[in-house]
Amino acid sequence: MKSCCGCQETINIETDEHSWSSIKQDYLCTGCRDTDESSLSTVMMITDGSTKKYYIGDHTRMTEYGNEIWDTELLINRQWVKTDDPHRGHYDTTVDGWSSVMEGWTTGGWDDPIAQKKQKFNQWAEDICTGEIIAPVPVAIVSDPTSNVFSMGISVLTPNPVELKEWLGSEFDELSNSLF
């Protein structure tokens, strides 16, 4: 018998369905694994026009193909940042050694002034992820769940912030402003 590292419920590892938390290096019940996988952050790592997608949770770190990744491969951290009450807030995902150059939020392609403002960033993100635009430095675009189901927290990270900002030029301000 073991305890789930998420909820502390007892797991009979010989008879109960269970998983392994690659982050906490401990047993995880199916319920906690399902809950974790329903609110994963997405990290798009773009280098030389090639994109790799990762899903990051409180217990899960995996590639887009479902393969677990370990701390030694990609040092990604995620924490919940609460706002005005315990149920409202957003996740904040970072990559060790990388700096955030843009932060804010975006939403889908609704036909209202706020969503239309977000489309500048959304189009740029799609273009850089598909290789339509190739940045001179590695870039990570992070999409973090928020307590508002109609928005995603967004951050753009890079190990070379000065070079990325110089490359973007005046477009940097336009992209940053579209995230507010």
Mean pLDDT, nearest integer? 90
Helix content: 10-25%
Distance between the termini: 49 Å
Sketch the major β-sheet. Answer: 6 strands, antiparallel
What is the number of beta strands?
A: 12
Q: Note the beta-strand portion.
A: 35-45%
| Secondary structural class | alpha+beta
Number of domains: 2
- Globally, the shape reads globular
Q: Can you list the strand order of the major beta sheet? A: 7-6-5-11-12-10
Secondary-structure element pattern, one letter each = EEEEHEEEEEEHEEHH
Specify the number of helices: 4
Our Rg estimate from Cα atoms comes to: 18 Å
Low-confidence stretches: none
In words, what does this structure look like?
This protein has helices at 30-37, 113-130, 161-168, 171-178, and strands at 2-3, 10-11, 18-21, 26-29, 41-47, 50-56, 61-63, 76-82, 89-95, 99-106, 139-145, 152-158. The protein has 4 helices and 12 strands. It is globular and about 60 Å long. Strand 6 (50-56) and strand 7 form a beta hairpin. The longest helix is centred in the last third of the chain and has 18 residues, at 113-130. The protein has a 6-stranded antiparallel β-sheet. The protein starts with a strand and ends with a helix. It folds into 2 domains: 1-38, no CATH class; 40-178, no CATH class. It is α+β, with helices and mostly antiparallel strands and 180 residues long. Helix 2 (113-130) packs across helix 4.
